[in-house]
Specification:
Elements lengths: L6 E10 L18 E6 L2 H9 L8 E3 L7 E2 L10 E2 L1 H4 L9 H7 L4 E3 L3 H16 L5 E3 L4 E5 L12 H15 L3 E6 L2 H8 L7 E3 L5 H5 L12 H9 L5 H5 L3 H8 L1 H11 L13 E14 L5 H21 L2 E12 L4 E12 L2 H13 L7 E13 H6 L35
Parallel strand pairs: 3-6, 9-10
Antiparallel strand pairs: 1-11, 2-8, 2-9, 3-5, 4-6, 7-8, 11-14, 12-13, 12-14
Helix pairs in contact: 4-5, 10-11, 12-13
Bound molecules: magnesium ion.
Length: about 425
């Protein structure tokens, strides 16, 4: 960026979609794996209490966009995003209507949602985890799976020592507590992290399954939703142990091939899913917010310079990571906060700065420039990995090999099964 540009903020974003899936973390035998599920305790509420210590000990819910903390009142609209543990003692839960909260807990305070702050703390606690190992699968803003199988220290105290060290490091860096479940796989680890919340540390090994899992309600299995729960109840299945006693044939008969098999294995604590450590990005973008309004005609040269620079920079960023884009677009925010975007499809997916600049100008020409503007951005989407394209025989009309290893060397593996693939079977 040129230094004379009146930039207030400049943002580069590579956004990914977890469901796009990625490479397998560990191909070791299930019995040898040590998988942790780490879940932050009442995350949004805990972050708010961190910076509002005077609210500690009081029941609070995170909800709404109002400018300040309010006392609950039956006329409030909206639903609870997160409830503090104090509020949960009154039966207040996530997704509960505020009017209902007012009935159950008249002293509850309503704290506005601030996702920027939650994302900031989320990045912080995940950075702590990544200082232990790179084998981390992001499962959202407040939870991750971690493959600790090869992390030094995992053998001590059945893994408790290492897990406690993780918890301590996160608390030291963020002031927040979390709960960890440590188990041979993701399925059991997820159940385990919930057993001693908040500030829990639960280790379950293969030999503990009958004793620790079977007494639990079948709903505790991530993937058994309300509908499946209802149908299992009709068969007399209440606990995971009840489920483990059902013959496979009966489960197949009632739940179909895929889900029936999955239930049969889940009850026995069998789950071979790997920890997926990366996901395919969906888009890459750059945005610049201006301190003063830019006039569409008088400031045209500056607008053109910014768009050109952003387009080139987005292309170079993709090129370095060996991605190609099928679509390039622009985003304009006017001084009345109206946002207009326009996309242009590329003839061939590429990461060529010249092509990107051309496409961005083409897109910009389609934006009705009838007001001063405050923000300009360029976004590339419909991304694909350069190696993928080589493999499928597509042409790479790009300089994709310019920065780094030969594109063919990084051919991604076939995606592993995706998490949460069981719910459609219900
Ligand atoms: Mg949580």
């Amino acid at each position: 960026m040129n230094r004379d540009e009146p930039l207030a903020r400049h943002a580069v974003t590579m956004s990914a979609d977890q469901d796009a899936s990625g490479s397998a973390g560990g191909a070791t035998a299930a019995s040898a794996r040590r998988i942790a599920h780490l879940d932050m305790d009442a995350f949004y509420a805990s972050v708010e209490l961190l910076r509002r210590p005077r609210l500690r000990g009081r029941p609070i819910v995170i909800a709404g966009r109002q400018p300040k903390v309010l006392r609950i009142d039956a006329s409030m609209r909206g639903v609870v995003t997160t409830a503090s543990y104090e509020a949960r003692q009154f039966g207040v839960r996530s997704a509960m209507a505020l009017a209902e909260v007012a009935r159950r807990c008249p002293d509850c305070l309503v704290v506005p949602v601030d996702f920027d702050e939650y994302r900031r703390l989320s990045r912080m606690f995940k950075a702590v985890i990544r200082s232990f190992t790179a084998q981390v699968e992001d499962r959202g803003i407040d939870e991750v799976y971690i493959d600790l199988s090869d992390t030094p220290g995992i053998a001590e105290g059945r893994g408790r020592v290492l897990a406690q060290r993780l918890k301590d490091a996160i608390r030291e860096a963020t002031g927040l507590s979390c709960s960890i479940g440590l188990a041979p796989n993701k399925l059991i680890a997820k159940i385990a992290s919930d057993l001693e919340k908040p500030d829990g540390l639960t280790v379950i090994e293969a030999g503990d399954i009958a004793q620790r899992l079977w007494p639990l309600a079948v709903r505790k299995i991530n993937g058994v939703g309300p509908k499946a729960d209802e149908r299992l109840a009709a068969l007399g299945v209440q606990t995971i142990g009840d489920l483990a006693r059902q013959p496979l044939a009966l489960l197949l008969e009632h739940f179909g091939n895929r889900y029936g098999h999955w239930l049969f294995e889940a009850a026995r604590g069998i789950d071979e899913r790997p920890v997926v450590t990366w996901s395919e990005p969906k888009s890459r973008s750059e945005e610049t917010t201006f301190e003063r309004r830019l006039h569409p005609q008088r400031d045209w040269r500056q607008i053109a310079r910014v768009i050109a620079s952003q387009a080139e920079s987005v292309a170079q960023g993709l090129d370095r990571r060996q991605y190609l884009a099928g679509t390039v677009g622009v985003k304009v925010r006017f001084d009345d906060f109206r946002i207009v975007t326009r996309d242009v499809g590329m003839r061939e997916p590429n990461a060529d700065p010249v092509m990107f600049r051309r496409a961005a100008f083409e897109a910009l020409a389609r934006v009705p420039m009838d007001r001063p503007l405050r923000l300009l951005g360029v976004r590339a989407s419909a991304l694909e990995h350069a190696a993928q394209r080589l493999r499928t025989g597509g042409e790479t009309a790009t300089s994709a090999q310019a920065g780094g290893a030969p594109a063919g060397a990084a051919a991604p593996k076939a995606p592993p099964p995706i998490d949460d693939l069981f719910s459609p079977g219900e």
